[in-house]
Amino acid sequence: MRIPARVLFALVALWITTACASARPPLEWEGHFIVYVTLGDAEPVPVGSEMRRYYPAEYRDEPVQAFESSGEIRLKLMGTEMTIVEEALSYTSLAGDPLYLEAGMGGDLEGAQRTIATYHPDRVDYVRRAGGEESRGSCIIPEGVSLRDPDYLFGPEAMPTGEPVTLHAFEPFSLEIQPVTMINEGRERAEVADRAFEGWRLEVDSEMLGPSTNWVDDEGLILGTRYTVGE
User: Fold this and answer.
1) Is residue 204 within 8 Å of 152, Cβ to Cβ?
2) Which pLDDT value is given to residue 142?
3) Are 226 and 213 in contact (CB under 8 A)?
4) Sign of the CA dihedral with 224 first, then 202, 5, and 120 last
5) Mean pLDDT by 10 residues, the chain (231 residues)
6) Separation CA 58–CA 65 (nearest Å)
7) Which of 71, 74, 107, 197 is most buried, with most CB under 10 Å away?
8) Backbone phi and psi for residue 8, each to the nearest 5 degrees, phi listed first
9) Are the CB atoms for 226 and 44 separated by under 8 Å?
10) List of residues 6+ apart from 213 with CB closer than 8 A
11) pLDDT at position 117, please?
C-alpha cells in the first residue's frame, strides 16, 4: 500500500530540526511526545509517539552536534491498519552546517528504505537502500542556497514575528533540496497530549512534508507538534 505524500510528513520528523545554531556549544536534551494528526477540519487525533535526542559527539575527529529521532506511527488508510517506524541520526558542525544524515523508514510501509547522506559545500552525496537494492548519487545545492541554520531553529526570539522565512534542507526520501517556509506567530499558551505550556508557535510548511504547527521553548526545543492531512 502506497502512503500519500501528504501523510509522509508525519513520519519524517522534520529533518531541518537537526541543525545547530551558529557558535554555540553542543546541546544535550531528550524529549518524548505524542504525534497528532488533523484530518481536514476534524479534531486532532493521536497516531503515535516520537523520541528526539540531542547530544555532543565527534565526526571525523571534530566535535559536533548529534541528533537522533525515532518514532512509531499507527495509521488506518482505506480500511487498512498499518504501523510505520522511522529513525534518523545526524551530525551538524558547531557552526550550524549539516555534515551527515542517516534516515530510515520501515514497518508495514511499502518501499521501506534507508538513506545515508554526506554534505559538501556544493552538493549532498547519498546512498539509498530499498528493496534489497542500492543506488548512489549526488544532489547539487543550487547557487545561492545555504543549508545552514540561520539561528532561527534554536533561537525563535531572533525570528521575525508574523513574517514568512524560507529555509532549505536536504529531504532524504525525495532526494531533493527543498524549501521550508516557517512563520513565527509569537508566544502563546497551548495544550498538547493533555499538557498545558507556553511557548513559541511556529507554522511550518513544505512541498514534501505539508503543514504542521509546532510549539517550541526559548531554545527551539519542541514542546508539542500537530500535523494536518487534507484540506
Assistant:
1) no
2) 94
3) yes
4) negative
5) 33 36 71 72 76 93 93 78 89 92 82 91 95 93 86 68 90 90 89 76 82 81 70 45
6) 8
7) 71
8) -55, -35
9) yes
10) 201, 202, 203, 204, 225, 226, 228
11) 97
Q: How far is CA 97 from the centre of its chain?
A: 16
Give the number of C-alpha atoms closer than 13 A to the C-alpha of residue 42, restricted to the C-beta side: 12
Nearest to 103 by CA among 128, 136, 131, 140: 128
In contact, 81 and 105? CB cutoff 8 Å: no
Cα(226)–Cα(68) distance, rounded to whole angstroms?
20
Looking at residue 14, what is its pLDDT? 38
CA–CA distances in Å: residue 161 to residues 136, 151, 184, 202: 41, 15, 5, 10
Provide the pLDDT for residue 13: 35
Please report the pLDDT score of residue 154 as a whole number: 57
With a CB cutoff of 8 Å and minimum separation 6, the contacts of 217 are 199, 200, 223
Q: Going by C-beta distance under 8 Å and a sequence separation of 6 or more, which residues neighbour residue 203?
A: 182, 183, 185, 211, 212, 213, 214
CB-count burial class (<10 Å; 0-12, 13-18, 19+) for 17: buried
**How many C-beta neighbours within 10 Å does residue 184 have?**
21
Cell matching residue 215: 510549539
Q: What is the pTM of this model?
A: 0.78
Q: What span, in angstroms and rounded, lies between the C-alpha atoms of 204 and 165?
A: 10
